[in-house]
Automatic annotation (TrEMBL):
The keyword rRNA-binding does not apply. Its EC number is 3.11.1.1. Keywords: Hydrolase. It is an enzyme of class 3 (hydrolase). One of its GO terms (cellular component) is cytosol. It comes from the Bacteria. The gene is phnX. One of its GO terms (biological process) is DNA repair. This is Phosphonoacetaldehyde hydrolase. The keyword Hydrolase applies. InterPro entries: HAD-like_hydrolase_sf, HAD-like_sf, HAD-SF_hydro_IA, HAD_sf, PGP-like_dom2, PhnX-like. SUPFAM superfamilies: HAD-like. GO terms for molecular function: phosphoglycolate phosphatase activity; phosphonoacetaldehyde hydrolase activity.
């Protein structure tokens, strides 16, 4: 039985028009590179953002210098903050209702993300979600030692919600690395959702237990049938 659901933010629970990956691309290419949006989303989706930058840059066959990655990451954060100031951020259809339904049935709901805490808190504040009221927790890449696909964020979410076994945890995200994270944490269910950065084919390659087209479809899988 699933007792904890860990959900990615951008592309999974929040519709922000892939602004983060558009901004990753803008920052990298402003430094003199020429990567496509498809390349950025294939290599960087779901990852801690400095790691995403590093992995996108490595597509050219070169190991990027730490100093260049740090400079691009700093530029990325400035660009993203500016984008979020004017962006019309919306929840994915039915997200709040799904959270409420799951929590009413005793399933804990925790959001996790490759963003740092400041960015994640800014994003969920724009939606209006409050920890303890709408969700049970928020875990970010800056809260743990290792980002995805390491299981650290899910393990922290389990600690915060007193869930002992990964078999009682479900993880959903819009990228293959979300699915890998769930597998590495020993989650009983790993789900890909087609509303975000990566295609059904890319999600399928990661071997999730399920692929869904909406959070409502996910909810029907998690809650036991009566």
């Amino acid at each position: 039985m699933i007792e904890l659901l860990v959900l990615d933010i951008a592309g999974t629970t929040v519709d922000e028009d892939n602004v983060v990956y558009k901004t990753v691309r803008a920052a990298i290419n402003a430094a003199g590179h020429q990567f496509s949006q498809q390349q950025v989303q294939a290599a960087g989706a779901g990852k801690e953002k400095s790691q995403a930058i590093r992995d996108v840059m490595a597509l050219g066959g070169n190991v990027p210098a730490d100093e260049e990655v740090a400079t691009i990451f700093a530029d990325f954060k400035l660009r993203l903050a500016a984008a979020y100031e004017s962006l019309d951020v919306r929840e994915q259809p039915g997200a709040s209702e799904v959270f409420a339904k799951l929590r009413q049935q005793g399933v804990k709901v925790v959001l996790n993300t490759g963003y740092d805490r400041a960015t994640a808190e800014q994003l969920i504040a724009k939606i209006g979600w409050v920890v303890g009221q709408d969700i049970d927790g928020l875990v970010t890449a800056s809260d743990v030692g290792n980002g995805r696909p390491a299981p650290d964020m899910i393990h922290l979410a389990m600690q915060q919600t007193s869930i002992a076994s990964g078999e009682n945890v479900a993880k959903i995200g819009d990228s293959a690395i979300d699915i890998e994270e769930g597998k590495n944490a020993g989650c009983g269910m790993t789900l890909g959702v087609t509303t975000g950065a990566q295609t059904r084919e890319q999600l399928t390659a990661a071997g999730p237990t399920h692929i869904v087209d909406s959070l409502a479809e996910m909810c029907d899988l998690i809650l036991p049938t009566e």
